[in-house]
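Question thread 4412

I'm putting together a teaching handout and wanted feedback from people who do this every day. The idea is simple: show students a protein as raw sequence, then show them the structure tokens that encode its fold, then repeat with a second protein so they can compare. Below is the first pair exactly as I plan to print it.
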Amino acid sequence: MRSITLVSGIVICAAAMIGSLATVAPVRAEDIAILEQDVEYSFAQQLTFTLAFTSSAEISELYLFFRGTTDPDTEKVTVAVADRGGVTRASYTHDVGLYPLPPFDRIAFWWQIEDVLGNQLQTEPDEFTYADNRFQWRELSSPGISVHWIEGRGDPVYAQTALDIAQASVAEINAELRAPVPDSLDIFLYDSEFHLEAAMVLGGRDWIGGQARPELGVVVVAVPPEQGYASRMKRYVPHEITHLLVYELVGSEGYRYVPTWLDEGLATSNEQLPTPEYALALEEAQQANELVSLRDLCVPFPPNGSRALLSYAQSASVVRFIRQQYGSDAIRRLLAAYADGASCTSGVEDALGISFSRLESDWLASLRPATGWRVWVERGGVWIGLWLLSILVTVPMIGHLHREAGR
């Protein structure tokens, strides 16, 4: 993720409440020269774009364009200008409170200037990262991975733990996925779920505990710097990194077709430390005959509650079953099928060669506790087979001997 501030190339070094970007653009058209373009913002409050330029003729129109990486539409604004001592200045303020922007999105912006003589100039698009500058952030980096944590909330050991887990997670998860590794991966550690929830809500996004922004190469998790933080990191960091690697493997278009049970099942099963609540939720639902239909897990899960917990538990269980029965190659075949636009059900048929309902029934059968007879058969399967084969060979021989004796 590339971010820019007035001071350096990293947006998180901006002041706690105001982030800004400034460039001097040597872009010129006839009789129009750009002197400076800036953007300043207060997270979840407002963005202010400013422009300064000179022109030998009167300006007829001035337009501002900006858009986020995840925004399908470009904002277009006509901006008034003011001539001050030969330098023309203009500004536009966007109310982020009314029109939220996704946290940590990259925002590109550019200007178009037209004068009464017909001269026209469009500035080169510039870009900044809309980080949560309510806080001042510290950073610890290794090639390709950066961990950011709030100043005064955690120390370098805390950050190094997250960095070590992230590095190990990328290697371990990609041993199966074999996905292209993003050029940059940024992990933001909030010191509380309250602060992370506020950031997501203020940014107009649903709150889901932790989040990955695959299209941005960003992971956002809440890990208080207190005893046991390593355990939380081992769950949250690999989970969210899985989403990023799946995205890199299937692409932005293909990611839309990956069913939630596979995406979240991979992420949950890749957590370095198992979550006991998942196993308990799965066992209780099975005993009560309240398991969620696999078809219902094709779509996004509920944001919270017992149903969400069970959905994650089931999805992880299904993914583990596929690995055990069909191998890691099957996971890659599934992702390839969905990347090609397969439906939730047809992807299973294409990749595994069985129907979607067969996958579900086989998985359900694997959950049933083995009876004494079943355990005996499974453990002694080879010897039982040899015993039956010997009977098949011996019985005809005995019959033949009886017939010979009767003569």
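The second pair follows. I'd like the answer to focus on this one:
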Amino acid sequence: MGDVAAKIKVMPNSPEIDLDELQDRLEEALPEGAKIRGFERDDVAFGLVALLPTVIVPDGAGGTEAVEEAFSEVDDVESVTVENVGRL
């Protein structure tokens, strides 16, 4: 089995959230076996900026579900959605 790359959209619950700190908390929340390849930022509206980490996970049991759940539990995260998934 190979690895899968997933771009995940993480919406903070407020425009006042420090995105650098939020990035650090997302990296700390990663489940075992997953790693972040990089972050992009997407201006949404009214000063709100979404984080778009590209997460590498092993292909198999559950796919990105564990990462989505872990990110959802991080403080200051409003929502988590998978934008794109592909094999490496």
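Top answer:
Good format. For the second protein you could add a caption like this: The CA atoms of residues 9 and 52 lie 5 Å apart. The first strand starts at residue 3 and ends at 12.
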